[in-house]
Amino acid sequence: MRIRKLFTLATFLCPLAFGAQALPPGKLLPKKSTPLPPEIQSVLNAIQPGNLRGNLSFLASDALQGRYTPSPGLDVAAEFIASRFRASGLEPGGPEFFQVAHMIDRRLPRMQTEMTLEHGGGKSSVAAQTITVLAVNRASRIEHAPALVFPTRDPDLLKGKDISGKAVISVQPDFEKLASGEATEVYDKMSAFDAAVLSSDAAVEIIVVHGTTLEPESRLIPAEKAILTRPPQIQVNSEELRNWVQHPSEGRFVSVQIPAPEDQKTAAKNVIGILRGSDPNLKNTCVLITAHYDHIGTTETAGHLAVPAKDQNNNDHIYNGANDDASGTVSVIEIATAIARMNRRPKRSIVFMTFFGEERGELGSQYYARHPVFPMTNTIADVNLEQVGRTDSTTGPQVNTASLTGFDYSDLPRYFVNAGRETGVNVYLDKEGSDAYFLRSDNAAFAEEGVPAHTLTVAFDYPDYHGLGDEWQKIDYDNMARVDRMIVLALLRIANSTVAPLWNSNNPKTASFRQAQKNSRTHKDGTYANSIP
Questions:
Q1: In terms of DSSP bridges, do strands 98-107 and 233-236 run parallel, antiparallel, or are they unpaired?
Q2: If you write DSSP's letter for every residue of 3-55 in order, what string do you get?
Q3: pLDDT classification of 436: cutoffs 50, 70, 90
Q4: Cα angle at 496 between 495 and 497, to 5 degrees?
Q5: Contact assessment for residue 453 and residue 443, using Cβ atoms and an 8 Å cutoff
Q6: How confident is the model at residue 25 (pLDDT cuts 50, 70, 90)?
Q7: Residue 349 has pLDDT above 80, yes or no
């Protein structure tokens, strides 16, 4: 799961501590005493701890070897999820319930030659062993590129700057010295800065860091993106370069030769099942309930994604990922099985989906966002489930509670607050986690397309996060069943509502999501396409 991870391998991994902040009582509706309709109560009662335990104990077993993307264990997991969807009577969202994504597994190269710095008529060099290649599509030879130095990776600094053909050099901040809120803001700016540089005609992006030089690793890239021309990106841990950056002078140039990566074709699958809606006008719109079914594999594949534990069992080498995110995956399965049994289907369609590759950069959700089964204009919401099984949070027990990221970004969370009132689950606002984690999970791909999308979790952090100890025996199945019942009630109400969830226009942080939604529903002639009733 990447909901806790704030930084890529190019950055320092900064774990944050979050305290649960309950919503003020005045903000909650009073608990309703009216019993739920019998059919709805029957659906809720179908969610059983034993079913969750049975499915999760298989998905998080050693037999699946940590479900790394790509791996045979991940393929077995996909087949298992498809078999559960098939047994529930769902309609497949692709051949045999699979949406197949063709990918390139790219092993980044080690630097073979030094980098040359020119300044004031003189030259100096940066040793090859201090350079880590973070991104390169093909062998790249940069000769005498003018250097453009930025003190920080802030996209505002790029405004008005011509970076075409230049070596863009920026300094990595020391995240250990930043407060959690500040670190999140800095990371968001860094991401935007990198995106701007890597989509430009710059010669190379060079990130200057303090600390340990990273080992080159592999990246999983959609096949259509692997052939794009883009600037290479390298990270350099060199005192020589740091001094060069800190003492500006005229006539600074960079020369560097970056080897080609090693590419291998592969494929991965999103697993998609559909329950068609019953309303003639609304059935062509849908609500998504999603989770990722991959994890980080074994000690051979996990690399920087792993979090070592003090009491680590040296005989264990499999990161089973029971809570992250087999818990979300089996919840999607159990919820699908329960709702599919209803005699009267919801008005809107519900899409049940599990993603590959979340741990390697939200790859499955991003792929679906580019190739949706239901058009994004007809997708009214995404409810993503992450870490819903463990109650032993590092901030204290989280029993009969749940939280959503981006809590005040849209009116979607109110469905869960109200459903929690009626099922005995306190759905609360975590004031720090709500915003900090909003774009750190698979809901981000949908929010960026304008779809109100949030991630629901029980514990933002827990002792075995990305550790070898995250195993199925530590899941609180009774609590997970209660949380899943609350989710079912909220999901049915969303799917039966004639009004689609809206972004909160009073929150400035939603501006880009509101604009994306508006853009997706506007015809080329400028007229507004109100395709969602």
A1: unpaired
A2: SS--S-TTS----------PPPGGGSPPPP-SPPPHHHHHHHHT--HHHHHHH
A3: confident
A4: 95
A5: yes
A6: very low
A7: yes
Distance, CA of 501 to CA of 380 (rounded, Å):
7
Report how far residue 105's alpha carbon sits from residue 200's, in angstroms, rounded to the nearest whole number: 24
Per-residue DSSP letter, 325: I
CATH topology of domain 35-104+266-497: Aminopeptidase (3.40.630)
CA 412, 418, 421 angle in degrees (round to 5)? 145
Let me know: does 313 contact 468? Beta carbons within 8 Å: yes
Write down the CATH number for the domain with range 109-260. Answer: 3.50.30.30
Contact in structure between 347 and 498 (CB atoms under 8 Å):
yes
**Is residue 508 classed as helix, strand or coil in its secondary structure?**
helix
22 close to 462: Cβ distance less than 8 angstroms: no
What are the start-end ranges of the E strands in 214-278? 218-222, 233-236, 253-258, 262-275
Mean pLDDT of 509-515: 94
The residue ranges of every structural domain in the chain are: 35-104+266-497, 109-260
What six digits make up the tokens of 95? 């051949």
pLDDT band, residue 174 (cuts 50/70/90): confident
Residue 30: what pLDDT?
Answer: 47
Q: Pick the residue with more confidence: 439 or 311? A: 439
Least confident range from 87-96, 188-197, 214-223, 273-282: namely: 214-223
pLDDT at 1: 56
Measuring CA to CA, which residue among 177, 169, 163 is closest to residue 211? 177
Burial state string for 472-493 with b = 16 or more CB within 10 A and e = fewer than 16: bebbbbebbbbbbbbbbbbbbe
- Tell me the longest C-alpha to C-alpha distance in the chain: 83
Separation of alpha carbons 455 and 344, rounded Å: 28
Cis peptide before 325 (omega within 30 of 0): yes
Q: Any idea what DSSP says for residue 415?
A: H
Backbone angles phi, psi at 47, to 5 degrees: -75, 110
409 and 504 Cβ atoms separated by less than 8 Å: yes
Q: Which residues pair with 102 in a beta bridge?
A: 267
- Please choose, from the candidates 363, 476, 354, 313, the residue with its C-alpha nearest in 3D space to the C-alpha of residue 59: 354
Q: Is 392 exposed, middle or buried (0-12, 13-18, 19+ CB in 10 A)?
A: middle
Measured between alpha carbons, how far is 335 from 331 in angstroms, rounded to an integer?
Answer: 6
Kindly report, residue by residue over 52-68, the tens digit of the pLDDT.
999 999 999 999 999 99
- Report whether 153 contacts 190 (CB < 8 A): yes
Q: Token digits for 155? A: 């996209």
Please give the Cα distance from 533 to 500 (Å, whole number): 7
Residue 27 region by backbone torsions, left for phi larger than 0, else alpha for psi between -120 and 50, else beta? alpha
pLDDT the model gives residue 320: 98
